[in-house]
Amino acid sequence: MTSNLIPSYAPPNLIFERGSGVYLFDGNGEPWLDFIAGIAVNALGHCHPALTSALHEQTDRLWHVSNMFDVPMREQLAAMYCESSFADLVFFTNSGTEAIEGLLKAARRFHFENGQPDRIEVLTFQGAFHGRSYGAINAGGNPAYLKGFGPAMAGFKQLPFADEQAFIDAISHDTAAVLIEPVQGEGGVRAAPEGFLRLLRAKCDETGALLLYDEIQCGAGRTGKLFAHQWTDAEPDGMAVAKGVGGGFPLGAFLTSQKVGQHMIVGTHGSTYGGNPLAMAVGIALWNEITKPETMANVIETGGFLKQQLARLADEFPDIIMESRGKGLLLGLKLHEQFIAREMTGLARDQGLLIGAAGDNVIRMAPPLIITKDHVREAVAKLEKALHTARKSGTS
Known about the structure:
Elements: E1 16-20, E2 23-26, E3 31-34, H1 37-40, H2 49-59, H3 72-83, E4 89-93, H4 96-113, E5 121-125, H5 134-140, H6 143-146, E6 156-159, H7 164-170, E7 175-180, H8 194-207, E8 210-214, E9 238-241, E10 252-256, H9 258-261, H10 277-290, H11 293-316, E11 321-327, E12 330-335, H12 341-350, E13 353-354, E14 356-358, E15 362-365, H13 373-393
Parallel strand pairs: 3-13, 5-6, 5-7, 7-8, 8-9
Antiparallel strand pairs: 1-2, 2-3, 4-10, 9-10, 11-12, 12-15, 14-15
Helix pairs in contact: 2-10, 3-10, 11-13, 12-13
């Protein structure tokens, strides 16, 4: 059958008709254990009653008015974010890419307003993924994503991930900002050492650069804190969030301190759909759920159990698995080069387990935050069968 869709994706021959909790169901009613959650999006699983109730109620009231008019729920959700973070100001978007774009604009605007209009260089890190827009792919610097889209944009410099000396050598009083994912997702499920984040904060303070976090994938409670950087005292000047904060409904935001965000005045930025009533209703309901102490306690306990089980698999299959990685419920297994991560996800899918592939030849798991130890046992048993299949074939 000929498709009228631009061929940017290559999905498997598998269609889901509904979801409930940690499971998706195909047309035959067969369950599939979802340990990728729409790539860390479905934070509370599928069709969580608090989210569906909030959305259904709002659909009968008001969908869209644009940012020409106030949306009281926007103020309410912004206050929730700021009360639980470093931030003073919030701008709502539809996606993580838009959040990154707005955050980069805010950083450069800050230096412009402080008399340094040419201070535009942003230091980023190899393996980063900040989105698919033109600015975002240049921030990430992945050659595969830049190929075919013209010359590289000026103002971005990529450094080795978590390399202290490389960072110290690169940052200067000309640096506008440093942008990093506290836990890389697409780049191979790599957590930045807490000491490295503290170094970034210290050097930014020393040089006047801004520290920016991309918590689009690792935020929204995924590591056991509301935001991944909160495991340290290295607070940022700005942060981008998305994915899990909407629980499946398109929602993103960039958060800033007062000193940074105050310069994004009328006319400097905008979004037609950002902060719309539907997104705000779901965002508030999601926030109320993930800020419950028992939610974060479950992420820490169950995430620790999953990490332990993945480490066991690494010990059991040293010929396939090089190491286990990650934090909380954003975890991965780096494979030896003869076992291709994307093909391994297919073997897991043959067992009814949905996982993802990431850079550095890593299989990635980002299950809903509501999973139990029984879900972990089920997932690990399925993954173990997939690994045995890979071992028998010699490669995946």
